[in-house]
Amino acid sequence: MRVGEERGGGPGALLPLAAVAGDVDARVRAIAGDLVRWRRDLHRHAETAWTEFRTSSLIARRLRELGFDVALGRDIHREEARMGVPPPDVLEAARRRALDEGAPAELAEAMAGGFTGVVARLRGGRPGPTIGLRFDIDALDIAESREPTHRPAREGFASVHDGAMHSCGHDGHAAIGLGVAEVVAGLRDDWPGRVTLVFQPGEEGVRGARSMVERGVADDCAVMLCCHLGAQSRRTGHVIGGISGFLATTKLDAVFTGRASHAGLEPETGRNALLGAATAALNLHALPRHSGGESRVNVGVLRAGSGRNVTPGRALLQLETRGATAEVNEWLEGRAREILAAAAAMHGLDLDVAVAGATPSAASDAAVVARVRQAAALVPEVREFDDGAFALASDDACAFMRRVQQRGGLAAYVVVGAALASGHHTPTFDFDEAALPLGVKVLALTARDLAARPEGGA
Length: 458
Prior knowledge:
Layout: H1 17-30, H2 32-44, H3 53-65, E1 69-71, H4 88-100, H5 105-110, E2 118-123, E3 126-136, H6 151-154, H7 170-186, E4 192-200, H8 209-214, E5 223-229, E6 238-244, E7 248-257, E8 261-262, H9 273-284, E9 295-304, E10 310-311, E11 314-323, H10 326-346, E12 350-359, H11 366-376, E13 384-390, H12 397-406, E14 410-416, H13 435-452
Parallel strand pairs: 3-4, 3-5, 5-14, 6-13
Antiparallel strand pairs: 1-2, 2-4, 6-14, 7-11, 7-12, 8-10, 9-11
Helix pairs in contact: 1-13, 2-7, 7-13, 9-10, 11-13
């Protein structure tokens, strides 16, 4: 019998998934209150990209307590591959704030400089493959609603950090990840192979995955499972086995530098950076779309000027390109850069363009989706299941999925449906917390099945 095949009968036999499901159900029921408590604590202490010191530290501490081998800081990032990192003073202020709010000092210190996130590994008592699960942990730059109709505000777990909010469910993702860790640790003696848990910083703006992927944190994984609450399903009890159609994307920050002048007295001595940025913005949106698949370009920010009587000497343009494939996105990014350069030259400006974020496209593997379906069938709370849906958006999870797939492995992006109070990335976002234990059960059972039957036997 080959290693990893489903065992049956006789002493020391590996329990079939249906037999494990009852144990998983009991373990998750026992921590259901913890899942809500963890989620609400992280929600209340929301931390944005590369400042997730408290979040990462508390996750790391619990994983160590469960017996995981935990890696942190520069050990899990390739420094030069990080994107969109805040200035050092912002990072240090966030680290000190985390310490004031209860982050273990030793762990927070290991992440100094913004090297946040956690990678944890646990080897089971039986031979088998390595199954990876990735969870994002960052918040958004959004001021959370204080209206009494908003449950976090009403029940006292709205963000205490001005301008930072878990408005996309990543607090729930982190809680699900901790729940999966609890289950795996409890089943360790009978678990085949190894589990790698990745808690990724900086998903918003697709900034955090590349440095972890290039550090090789997922290179031992035969399968990578990723998940999201809500998104393509706003019905608690509904699970989508695998999302596809993710768009590759690049986020660019373009700074136009000209020369300020008195707009009335000496306008001819100025070089108008605002006009250069505006010229670029209009022409970026005039770019044709690509026949190779879905393509997008958007200018989301244009900041320039200091007064109506001053020629603007500096302008910031923040834009993004997206494409159905890496090739489509690269074409669109190349054309965008040409337009930025031409607009700067037209107005006699200097131009600096920096990549603030990027991630590839990815699709879920049908073979893994089938295993998610089998696992979900053993979870009583799952009332609906669909094999797939198309995202037509971008997610940093794709970097992990593509890395594993390019190395011969498989991947899937699972959506755990959840009723939402309002849409993602809004000040009143909230989700049905009943989705948390459901998500833990589906992912833990899927991981166990993939570990026990890596070749998908009957």
